[in-house]
Amino acid sequence: MNEIEKSNRRVEMSAVLSDAVYKYEVAYTAGRKNPTEVAVGVLDDAGVDSSSYDIVDSMYDPNSGVAAIAVYDKVTEETYIAYAGTNMDADGHKDIIVDAAIGLNDTLYLKEKSQPAVDFYDRVEAKGHYITTTTGHSYGEFQSGRVALERQVLYNYGYQGAPQSVNGKTAQEMISNGDSKLFKIIHSSN
Fold it and tell me: Which percentage of the chain shows pLDDT scores above 90?
């Protein structure tokens, strides 16, 4: 397989995995006995040959709402990690609170809520998997992007990703300085 074919395969798999991890998260939080079967069903429906990959790990963190699956691709001999995006059907308000923190640039809170995503990467890597690709949609892309930056992942394919706010003032700084529109809106309504 040449590098162009590998690149095309990574893009195709990341797109399917970005959808599969949503379904995994819903199945997990609904209490299904084997939620990874749901992810496999998404890959099957997308036409991915079941003999070409293995789901090697999965996780859901109830405190942060972070969900992820790790897939070993037998075609490229690489492992991909997909993170679920905002998913009201799975964990209700948890992802929405983090979405608001992204908008407010609450960097300390976001680092704390992203830790389960980084920990999952470390766990998969510790099992001997060569992780080349992270992926996700929306909030999942936010998670995969942070992991890619922190762990120097070669490829990060995102779909309609939430912005990475790593510089500029935090919400707390804007409020304490009195220079945010949010501050003015909140205080003008009182």
Answer: 51
